[in-house]
Amino acid sequence: MSHPAHSVIVLDFETTGLSPNMGDRAIEIGAVKLVDGEISATFQRLMNPGVRISGFIESYTGISNAMLSQAESAAEVMAEFTDFIGDSPLVAHNASFDKRFLDAELERIDTRYGGQFACSMLIARRLIQDAPTHKLGDLVRFKQIENDGTFHRALADAQMTARLWLLMLDELNVAGVHNPSFALMQTIATTSKPSIPALLRRSAGLSATD
């Protein structure tokens, strides 16, 4: 049975840099659990990576070395987060970035995530083609998605990504694609832009016969 797209976990990492392969670490994780299109739980933790962060990252995120020195270790936080996500499908904006850090931090505690990932940025590029850019903040402004003005903090970004995800599901519903599966969202992410209308027509026909 295909998993419904309206029951997922949306996550976001703040990190010391761009790549765990270069030694960068996660310093904060935020996640929103959606069940039937409603937020049922959230998760937010600072995580002490055991290294100092740069002044740039401090000013970019508002997370200071002093805050991290008081935080739980990355290993403790990731063990908690593993319990939170289980094998639920995950969504992130620019998911390849977050997946790299998720995999790297889980590997440090000898754990793996066995579920599926979808990228809201790739999907938005195909479903919201008239947006000026597909950065999260620009999409939030373009679609007038509710936000509190906080950016580059993990839970705030996860909450905005969750609202963007639900908005795209609503727009699919208007287009006749009712109760889309998570697998369909993954397919949209990898379908060429010119092929999207035909894919949605086929999907609407399938949902009409469910």
Description:
- This protein has 210 residues and is an alpha/beta fold.
- 46% of the residues lie in helices and 15% in strands.
- The chain has helices at 55-61, 65-69, 74-85, 95-108, 120-127, 136-142, 154-174, 182-190, 196-208; strands spanning 9-15, 26-35, 38-46, 90-92, 117-119.
- Strands 3-2-1-4-5 form a 5-stranded mixed sheet, sandwiched between helices.
- β2 and β3 form a beta hairpin.
- α5 (120-127) crosses α8 (182-190).
- The longest helix is centred in the C-terminal third of the chain and has 21 residues, at 154-174.
- The protein is globular.
- The model has no long low-confidence stretch (mean pLDDT 94).
- InterPro entries: DnaQ, Ribonucl_H, RNaseH-like_sf, RNaseH_sf.
- GO terms for molecular function: 3'-5' exonuclease activity; DNA binding; DNA-directed DNA polymerase activity.
- This is DNA-directed DNA polymerase.
- Its EC number is 2.7.7.7.
- It comes from Vibrio ostreae.
